[in-house]
Write a structure and sequence with these properties.
Length: 492
């Protein structure tokens, strides 16, 4: 019997006000894994009310004691790592080793954020007046709305939730409709770890209704969103109307540059992993290979051979290298961009089709285009699938120019044995993250993560920067002189 999941509001499982449900589908088998209730505006109101009550309790607990809850949550995540990874492969489709990595990332950020509970540092400085002390302290924002994608169903919610919690905030959380079960499991683990009722509530449902209610809610004071550029722009406009803080992590069109002095075997492994890991469904996936003309023929021949050896199938099978894409809509989007690539004059070297027959799910072949011009749509627009576009260049300056020629700026990479070339790329590539002799994927939780240009609006997730996303800075002046002192007046 298919299990039905309700909303989690105020620490309790509650029926939705809409009476509607949606199915949670395994993209590899098309099996219905669960039925999930759809939240409505009334449910978002209830979640905000519960969050406001939870915030008063949670923010009053010292940060090191809040950390105790997160450390317990990390231990529970570790104990259930395999169970959660298997569920992730069933619900989202990524191969099991990658799913284990997703859960491990959640464990890592939970542990890291907990450690920050003893490092909620402000600053002290001198005053221009005698017998006066100056400092800053960090304060939580309040109720934060979070809207997350399906491609990292535990890691990305954890990247947002854990720093917000250690800072003392309360959260109204809308997960992606393709992966609601994992989000519910994550919140249940936090509750099991001792999180007070109402501090995190979960309201599943479509972004166009539930997400809209969260973004426009007058008592939600900040929004953290990971998703598409167009939706991010709309959120930013809506948040401006009520002066909400907004943190956006949006699209990417990530380049890897392979220079003529690169270790080609290392670069091949990196391009293969960056382009086709998670079936290309990462915001940091390698979607553009910028290849030096001197190594073009050899590199492409070797890349084709390696790509042809990738095994497509259910991610639970140990022999599988590439799983399904998430849903029918995404499958059709990838097909559309393959057609566009052909129409624009690019040469399809490999793939370009659904995988048939014998696989009932949403499977698409790893796809490689060459003869791609930088202005083509397949080199400019985010596809979010296993599609790699190869652009040939004559040198480093041209490679950097091509790499920077998109509206996005999330991740970038270069393969070279020359330290000067590497540092010039680090300096000139327009991206929030740059890798040298490594693929465009592989962020670690103790470093800041985020993009520039159309990828983000300046905030960073993970690392110490994550705390800034969810805190306000208060300046404090303590005058112990016993008399009126006037800054800028009594000092002249």
């Amino acid at each position: 019997m298919v299990q039905e999941y309700k909303l989690l509001i105020g620490g309790e499982s509650r029926d939705s006000s809409t009476g509607k449900t949606f199915d949670d589908i395994n993209p590899a088998t098309l099996e219905n894994l669960a039925t999930v209730q759809v939240a409505g505006a009334e449910d978002v109101d209830r979640a905000v009310e519960a969050a406001e009550k939870g915030f008063r309790v949670w923010s009053d607990i010292p940060a090191p004691r809040r950390a105790d809850v997160l450390f317990r949550a990390a231990r529970i995540l570790q104990e259930r790592k395999e169970e959660l990874a298997v569920l992730m492969t069933e619900e989202m489709g990524k191969v099991l080793p990658e799913a284990r990595g997703d859960v491990q990332e959640a464990i890592d950020i939970t542990t890291y954020a907990a450690g920050e509970g003893r490092r909620m540092f402000g600053e002290t400085t001198t005053s221009e007046l005698k017998d006066k002390f100056c400092m800053t302290v960090l304060r939580p924002i309040g109720v934060v709305g979070m809207i997350t994608p399906w491609n990292f169903p535990i890691a990305i919610p954890s990247w947002k939730i854990m720093p917000a919690l250690i800072a003392g905030n309360a959260i109204v959380f809308k997960p992606a409709s393709d992966t609601p079960m994992l989000a519910i499991k994550l919140v249940e683990i936090l509750m099991e770890a001792g999180l007070p009722p109402g501090v995190v509530s979960i309201v599943p449902g479509p972004g166009g209704s539930v997400g809209k209610s969260i973004v426009q809610h007058p008592r939600i004071r900040a929004i953290s969103f990971t998703g598409s550029l167009d939706t991010g722009k709309w959120i930013m406009e809506e948040c401006a109307k009520t002066m909400k803080r907004v943190s956006l992590e949006l699209g990417g069109k990530n380049p890897v540059i392979v220079m003529d002095d690169a270790d080609l075997e290392l670069a091949l492994e990196g391009v293969l992993w960056g382009a086709f890991g998670t079936t290309g469904q990462r915001c940091t996936a390698t979607s553009r290979l910028i290849l030096h003309e001197k190594v073009k023929d050899e590199f492409i021949a070797r890349l084709l051979a390696k790509t042809k050896s990738l095994r497509i199938g259910n991610g639970l099978l140990p022999e599988t290298d590439v799983g399904p894409v998430i849903n029918k809509s995404q499958l059709e989007k990838i097909e559309k961009y393959v057609r566009i690539g052909k129409e624009e004059g690019a040469t399809l070297l490999l793939g370009g089709s659904r995988v048939d027959p014998g696989l009932p799910g949403y499977f698409f072949e790893p796809t490689i285009f060459t003869d791609v011009m930088p202005e083509m749509k397949i080199a400019q627009e985010e596809i979010f699938g296993p599609v790699l576009s190869i652009i040939t260049v004559s040198g480093l300056d041209e490679a950097i120019e091509v790499a920077n020629n998109t509206k996005y700026g999330l991740s970038s990479a270069i393969y070279t044995e020359n330290v000067g070339t590497a540092f010039r790329a680090v300096e000139k590539l327009e991206a929030g993250v740059t890798y040298v002799n490594a693929p465009t994927i592989g962020a670690e939780v103790h470093l800041p993560f985020g993009g520039i240009k159309g990828t983000g609006n300046g905030f960073r997730e993970a690392g110490t920067e994550a705390i800034k996303e969810f805190t306000e800075v208060k300046a404090v002046y303590i005058d112990y002189s016993g008399r009126l002192q006037r800054a800028q007046i009594d000092t002249v």
